[in-house]
């Protein structure tokens, strides 16, 4: 059994979703949406429509997943159900943290502490102490769950200090470097 965790955003509300696939080949799932548990029996039909039995109620879901292969942090999806189209964003928890970290591009002045948005291992630094960096420039690459994630500079400035070394394991919010 595999447990997957997602963060879903619908109509500006954030929802936490956990999915256990008891027997994926049979389409049987336990889904926890926020704090409510649902039993789901889902099958994809040849027409690409997903038919789902959710707590003994039947739904036909037409999913339109855009190809966002060039942006793995774009989890937008449209779902047509019961004549309505719902626009959602669904990201695994780790990708949601990455997106939130990337979107915190407010104007910063003074000292900026760059922290790891997730636990992982530092693969490589893309800068060294004393380097001038520009906003959006890659600073460090962290491996988490066999995926490489580049942390970018939230502001332009000078790399004042680097704290962790390449190949070090880091926890969420571990201080990586300081930009002034």
Provide a brief overview of the structure.
With about 180 residues, the protein is mostly beta strands. Helices cover about 5% and strands about 55% of the residues.
Question: What does this entry look like structurally?
Answer:
The chain is mostly beta strands. It has 2 domains: 2-92, Glycoprotein, Type 4 Pilin; 104-179, OB fold (Dihydrolipoamide Acetyltransferase, E2P) (Beta Barrel). Helices cover 6% and strands 57% of the residues. The chain has one helix at 93-103; strands at residues 2-10, 13-23, 28-33, 36-44, 50-54, 57-65, 76-81, 84-92, 112-115, 120-125, 132-133, 138-144, 147-152, 157-162, 169-170, 175-179. The chain has an 8-stranded antiparallel β-barrel. It has a 4-stranded antiparallel β-sheet with strand order 9-16-14-11, with no helix packed on it. The protein is elongated and about 60 Å long. The model has no long low-confidence stretch (mean pLDDT 82).
């Amino acid at each position: 059994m595999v447990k997957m965790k997602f963060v879903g955003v619908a109509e500006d509300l954030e929802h936490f979703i956990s999915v256990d696939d008891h027997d994926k080949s049979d389409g049987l799932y336990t889904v926890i949406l926020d704090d409510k548990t649902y039993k789901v029996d889902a099958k994809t039909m040849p027409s690409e429509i997903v038919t789902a039995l959710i707590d003994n109620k039947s739904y036909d879901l037409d999913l339109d997943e855009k190809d966002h292969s060039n942006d793995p942090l774009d989890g937008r999806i449209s779902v047509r159900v019961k004549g309505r189209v719902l626009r959602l964003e669904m990201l695994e928890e780790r990708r949601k943290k990455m997106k939130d970290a990337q979107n915190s591009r407010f104007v910063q002045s003074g000292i900026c502490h760059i922290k790891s948005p997730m636990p992982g291992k530092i693969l490589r630094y893309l800068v060294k102490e004393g380097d001038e960096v520009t906003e959006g420039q890659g600073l460090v690459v962290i491996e988490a769950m066999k995926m490489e994630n580049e942390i970018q500079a939230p502001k332009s400035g000078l790399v004042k200090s680097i704290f962790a070394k390449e190949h070090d394991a880091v926890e969420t919010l571990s201080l990586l470097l300081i930009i002034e």
